[in-house]
Write a structure and sequence with these properties.
globular, alpha+beta, single chain, about 20% helix, tt1808, chain A, 4 helices, about 200 residues, 6-stranded mixed β-sheet
């Protein structure tokens, strides 16, 4: 969950130092710092469900999930640091580091305040990661997922609609069933607190 960027330009080194003692987390986009806000109950429920089911299936395997407490660094023309809702890493950085560099999968749960970033800025940045096999974007008010999978000539887009849908992740040897992803999430008119136009599926 993120908000508008602060206007002060800072170095990546200063950003990392400030994050170690900050009471609120911020993302870093090539010199600009963007404060983050907390997620809704259902946003957190979807994220926790994904973390639990991936952790259970990956037990004893070399890959492991990291939740939104772990930063992701993207190196390019300028450094970027994001806090994905969930990232799966098979080649982890040192245990003393505060970020990862090489996720094989990233999951973001959409919210009205973050969907523009998640479906545009972050999507374009994440797909530049050499190790990334898929980027999964989850709606929180309906059982619906967008999956960008790596192919020989780029990424291709899949959609999954309904609780009976199953996202196969063969590179990890696991699956994500939307029935599990949305376990405990209320699907009713009262569960959507924001205007319906904010939730138009892309």
């Amino acid at each position: 969950m993120s908000n508008a960027p602060k206007s002060e330009f800072v170095s990546a080194e200063d950003y990392l130092l400030s994050e170690e003692n900050a009471s609120n987390r911020s993302e870093y986009i090539e010199g600009w710092v963007r404060a983050m806000t907390g997620g809704s109950v259902r946003h957190n429920q979807v994220k926790v469900n994904c973390t639990y089911h991936l952790m259970r299936q990956l037990k004893g395997k070399p890959c492991r999930p990291f939740d939104s407490d772990m930063k992701l660094r993207i190196r390019g023309k300028g450094a970027r640091f994001y806090y994905p809702d969930l990232q799966v890493v098979c080649d982890s950085n040192s245990s003393t580091e505060h970020f990862q560099d090489s996720p094989v999968s990233i999951i973001e749960v959409l919210s009205p305040s973050t969907r523009q970033y998640d479906l545009d800025e972050k999507l374009n940045a994440y797909l530049q990661i050499d190790t990334l096999e898929c980027y999964i974007v989850l709606e929180q008010h309906i059982p619906y997922a967008i999956v960008l999978r790596r192919a020989p000539h780029g990424f291709f887009r899949e959609t999954y609609d309904g609780l009976d849908s199953v996202i196969m992740l063969p590179f990890l040897g696991v699956t994500l069933e939307l029935r599990d992803v949305y376990d405990g999430v209320e699907f009713s008119a009262t569960c959507v607190q924001e205007p319906d136009t904010e939730y138009e599926i892309v």
